[in-house]
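#lab-general

N.A. 3:47 PM
ok so I finally got the sequence cleaned up, no stray characters, all 466 residues accounted for. can someone with queue access submit it? mine expired

B.Y. 3:52 PM
send it over

N.A. 3:53 PM
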Amino acid sequence: MLLYSTMLDVNDTLTKEKFIQLVIKWNQESQYEENVIPGLVWDGQMNVKYGDDRHWLEIEEYRNGNTVAIRYQKVEENGRIWNSDYVMNFAAGKMHIQLDRSFTGDANDLDQEFSTPHFLTFLIEEGHLQADGDLPVAREPIYIDKNNSELLARVIKGESSYQLPVVYVSKTKRGQYPVDVNLLASKLKGVAHVLVQESPNYDEASKELNEHYGAVGVYYPNKAVQPKRFWYKDTAAQRKNMLENVIYAVMTYCNCQQVDGAYTWDGVLNAISRDRLESQREEREQAETEKEQVYSEFDDELKTLQERIDSLTQENEALRAENAGLHSKFGEMDKRPVLVMGDEEDLYPGEIKELVLSVLADELERRVAKRSRRSDVFSDLIEKNDYQGVYRKKKAEIQRILKNYTIMDAKTRKALQDFGFRIEEDGKHYRLTFFGDDRYKTTVAKTPSDARAGKNIAHYIEQTMM
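B.Y. 4:20 PM
back already:
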């Protein structure tokens, strides 16, 4: 399970030696004694491993890619396996940091809690990270007042481009913060910028604000992803939930971003294996003219090794894509969904969601008072769930098909079948069954005598099947 993933720009003050020393410092100065690898002293060598089966730290250098990858793994007694990966590409000046967790077969603790890697604090304190646009990568909140309100204004208007999400926290009516902003900034260090309201007004910026009176907004770098907002309620439980939900919204977005394999532990190891394989192949090809018979038996071994590398690469990328897909799906849902699916299944893709949203849309349009609680809740649900108005389109379509019905000609039959009906002869009538579900059926005369027969059937279908 991917818990934390971020890509950061690093300046040239971070050398290979300094990078490795900082990772070792992170391990040796851990506040959790069980995480520390006893006697870990780096002697300057690359491609080495320290520790034991319970916890170990491995350093791999990929010279051709000017990259150093470090993995720390810890296996706990309860079956949890923690991997912390630090991959630094010195040519590009970029670092990928990842924390994931898996479980052994006898795992007995599925707790979701984790801490943001303290290694980020070292990078920040020692000044190794480049700014993200005009915002520093920090572990403290940035306080917004009239003197720097243009920072917030550019975020809200979409005029500034950042690699990391921006979280904005407004004050409540009592002038307090809805969450512990210092804790929030610490939890989100390296994955988001936390901006907080300091003054009651921001002049021009305040006119653009969507967050007031304790609301929190999350603005994403990808403009295709709509900002997410959390509204404040004055209860202790709600404040705790707000903190967790904001962190969840940011982490979910960051964890589902695609990461180039060159910045992953597995990707670096595969690249090193390929280079070693190619080197061996070249050496053996050189010697083959003299010792063809001796080396022929190694061809199958080389082929097998190549196939294994290719297989591992494909498997790794498939798992990564699957993980990203799952996170993407989770990102579309809240941790506590408004509705839980019942036993009914969609007759066509998205049917149930559209039916529910169509009821909300109709209620909002016809009976709900403007500027009311119902209006705010219904509008929010309709907006966040990508309502397509399928019901209204289908209503118009069935009316068009049956408006002037006089006979089941080929054109009408095909239109009804495309709409989802199974059509069967039943004496002087045709029996229409909606998507093969016998609970939703009706009949239509083969030669109706009533000129309004088609309209009446269309109305019946609207009321009972859509």
